[in-house]
Design brief:
This protein has 432 residues and is of the alpha/beta class. Helices cover 43% and strands 22% of the residues. It has 15 helices and 17 strands. The strands form 3 sheets. It has an 8-stranded mixed beta barrel with strand order 8-9-11-12-13-14-15-16, surrounded by 5 helices. It has a 5-stranded mixed sheet with strand order 2-3-1-6-7, sandwiched between helices. A two-stranded antiparallel sheet has the order 4-5. Helix 14 links the parallel strand 15 and strand 16. Helix 1 crosses helix 5 and helix 10 packs parallel to helix 11. The longest helix has 26 residues. The chain is globular.
Length: 432
């Protein structure tokens, strides 16, 4: 698609908010196609740095420079690529249907080369230094909002380190809390109930019926859009409001479960606890109070923690988990296989369930090694008396293989994405 220049009659904020909404839709469509066709999607965040600061010297507006830049980009992009201004000095470029993420690096180089040639604006030569941040699906993100955030983090790092390009890395996620500047907004969102929960069904592999659901945090931040759940948690951890966030999530989930129960529909729920939750000695009391408030059957609630959550202080983590277990709740290890701990630590925690991380599940039918790992984990869980949940299930072949291996539950796009409460309950009733 050919790029379109910002309209001079609208303010920057008006123009950019419209393009952001369209961008998220376009990225979502590109990811959906890539998921089905085993392709990649890349997002280039291009910042136009003006070393000579000509806007201050000769009065050339930044928007005029942006218009010239957008007009030039179609000459080095494919017809299916899309370039949009997302701020006064940033352009985001969507590269769908890539054979490999390496193509993004080539495209970034071409973009930089053409923009470095400069522009003639009102008879004046304007030079810019294009800095590019790169993030790709599926390597760095699975949601449109995550791709935007991660590419923007990457360009910020490139600019700070005086690099021409930077590809998003896992360790860069720690920079997102400061970068996003959303700490105050998140505090306000928790206080004023601006967050929401979506629910992803968990399916009984044997019967194919919906058995339970995982509650997943969602936040549409003002002037930004949907913030990825992992980013919400990192901001909460960095700003010391994990306890408040946990209180909100637990009460929201139990209230929703109680509302469904009034309609005669009992839905077991899984709730995620962050790493720092395992250092919150007040967590069991928070859970007990919430269960009393909403008259919750504790056996219908499962709390999920990641492997890494127990590493800092296994003894303290075990104490908190034992207290939750004594209240009647069930416990699960999430993303099993990607953490830091030995299998031996399983015997020290009162676990009921183990969730196998999606990278193992998504290669189950194409890799003998992953198949052996999943088979081993399921057998291990049987020895410990634990149920097994497979995450990231996306096709019928994987479902069939999981059934052969004796997996208990599965969740993923093969069944349904996470849905808002109203949509979820309609789906659940049709599939239970």
């Amino acid at each position: 698609m050919r790029a379109t220049a910002p309209a001079t009659t609208s303010t920057p904020s008006e123009h950019f908010s419209v393009t952001r909404r369209g961008l998220i839709t376009a990225i979502g469509n590109a990811i959906q196609f890539a998921r089905l066709s085993n392709r990649s999607v890349a997002l280039l965040m291009v910042q136009l740095v003006r070393p000579d600061k000509l806007e201050a010297v000769v009065g050339i507006p930044t928007l005029e420079v942006m218009k010239h830049a957008l007009r030039r980009l179609p000459g080095v992009l494919r017809a299916v690529d899309r370039a949009l201004a997302v701020s006064e000095d940033k352009i985001v470029i969507l590269l769908p249907n890539l054979k490999s993420s390496a193509q993004a690096l080539l495209a970034a180089g071409k973009v930089q080369q053409t923009l470095e040639e400069g522009f003639t604006v009102d008879g004046e030569m304007v030079k810019v230094r294009p800095v590019v941040g790169i993030a790709t699906y599926p390597e760095h993100a699975e949601l449109p909002e995550e791709l935007i955030v991660h590419s923007d983090i990457a360009v910020g790092i490139a600019s700070h380190r005086d690099l021409a390009q930077h590809v998003f890395q896992a360790e860069d996620r720690r920079d997102s809390d400061i970068y996003l500047g959303l700490e105050a907004a998140l505090r306000e969102a928790v206080r004023t109930n601006q967050l929401e929960l979506h629910f992803q069904p968990q399916i009984d592999i044997t019967t194919g019926k919906a058995a339970s659901a995982e509650a997943l945090l969602r936040w549409r931040a003002p002037d930004f859009g949907m913030v990825p759940p992992s980013t919400i948690v990192r901001i909460a951890e960095a700003s010391g409001i994990v306890s408040s966030l946990n209180t909100w999530v637990i009460n929201c989930a139990l209230r929703q479960q109680a509302d469904w129960l009034k309609r005669g529909i009992l839905i077991k729920l899984s709730l995620n606890l962050s790493t720092l939750s395992m250092a919150d000695g007040d967590l069991p009391a928070t859970v007990e109070q919430a269960m009393g408030t909403w008259n919750t059957d504790p056996s219908t609630i499962t709390f999920e923690i990641t492997e890494g959550a127990t590493v800092g202080d296994l003894v303290r983590s075990a104490e908190i988990l034992v207290r939750l277990k004594e209240q009647g709740a069930k416990l699960a290890i999430d993303d099993f296989g990607t953490g830091y701990s030995s299998l031996s630590y399983l015997k020290n925690l009162p676990l009921d369930e183990l969730k196998i991380d999606k990278p193992f599940i998504q290669k189950l039918t194409s890799s003998a090694a992953e198949q052996k790992i999943v088979k081993f984990v399921i057998a291990l869980c049987r020895d410990f008396g634990m149920k097994v949940v497979a995450e990231g299930v996306e096709d019928d072949a994987t479902i069939s293989e999981l059934k052969k291996l004796g997996c208990d539950l599965a969740q993923g796009y093969a069944y349904s994405p996470a849905l808002p409460a109203a949509d979820f309950i309609d789906w659940f009733q049709k599939h239970s």
